[in-house]
Fold this sequence. Notes:
This protein is mainly alpha-helical. The chain is 75% helix and 0% strand. It has three helices and no strands. The longest helix is centred in the middle third of the chain and has 31 residues, at 29-59. The chain is flat and about 55 Å long.
Amino acid sequence: MTLKIASIRIEDTLLERVDQMAQLQERSRAWVINQAIAQYLDYEEWFVHTIEEGIAQADAGQLVSHETVKQKWKEKIANQMDADSQK
Length: 87
């Protein structure tokens, strides 16, 4: 793995949080920033991929009606209320 230098402007309070996390984890500032960027990109890539899958399904006509979704949520809420009342 080749490391490259990148320069960014960052708010004081955000940098303080990075430094605090680095100290708590006994890691370097660069390590914390790299982890944060990697996690952010992992999530955003997953999100975009999921949206693209949903659009492809919609384009293929694989849709669920509004009434079906409402009914499933009503059942889920009812089941949760039953489970909570049995505690």
